[in-house]
Amino acid sequence: MKVLGIETSCDETGVAVYDTARGLLADALHSQIALHADYGGVVPELASRDHVRKLLPLARQVLDEAGVELQALDGIAYTAGPGLVGALLVGASLGRSLAFALGVPAIGVHHMEGHLLAPMLETPAPCLPFVALLVSGGHTLLVAVHAIGDYRILGDTLDDAAGEAFDKTAKLLGLDYPGGPAVAKLAESGDPARFRFPRPMTDRPGLDFSFSGLKTFTLTTARENGDDPQTRADIARAFQDAVVDTLYIKCRRALQQTGLRTLVVAGGVGANRALRARLAELEQAQGASVFYPRPEFCTDNGAMIAYAGALRLRAGQGEGLAVEVRPRWSLQELSVVA
Ligand code: KG4
Ligand code: ZN
User: How far is CA 55 from each of CA 87, 96, 174, 195, rounded to the nearest angstrom?
Assistant: First the structure.
């Protein structure tokens, strides 16, 4: 079954073709980072308009690269939420109408299910059941996954998402959007011993997160210590160490609580090298195996949507003819794929 996947939930236009028999055939991405850079964050209306401009050419390119004729597609998957409503509608409109024109089924995919399943595109792929740590610009979730679609949320953030905390801290340090990679790079030359930021909510039981206090720490530390380049690097290091350590502590706790031995990490912050190095310690500490998508599939992409959609379409799921998106949508509402 050949499925075209379309991702337009935020600031990347992603398209891919996944074949349930042969795997991923092609994928391409257009990033809007340059478009939003001057504004220090994503401008929703600009995002929607850019998806309109880029989506069709990108879809043609991916079908060409995959060597798949439009008529050979067996289904279309598009991100239906959560995300920016205008941006989502671009992908959903094209996806749903293309499926109608071709007479094939369409499926609206949950963006975070896409992230969660992205590590399954790699070899070796993780085996169910597992704990998933989803760390993106909009979400910080620990999820117990017992089957595709059977998602029990173990922990969530009470305020900022991990990626959002990186982005806000970057702004305070005068770094460009998106802040995650910029903070990570600056942190490399930081002194880990100079400042110590708290590990929020690790001193009490539970698996929820809170990252908004760290930006206050960044702000006050910068005010009190000046903003020479070394101090900024030291602050970036203290911030990153605090986020990484907090995520490590909660992942270890989630594995202990569930008795599971497999951790899957996905979402943009999963590309962070310091986080990967720290989570590798879980192999020793918990006898756990940790799985990631390749770095370009940590951030938003069409491949994860094509893959998640293909699993649901293959199980006979699909949407009606209405173009529907869900800007807010909990993972726990999804149906199980038998
Ligand atoms: O998954 P994603 O591409 O988009 C959302 O669905 O949100 O995640 C983007 C987020 C941004 O906040 C970005 O700053 C962060 O992931 N990010 C990183 C790194 N690469 C991307 N954060 C820390 N370290 C990185 N290397
Ligand atoms: Zn995402």
Answer: 11, 14, 32, 45
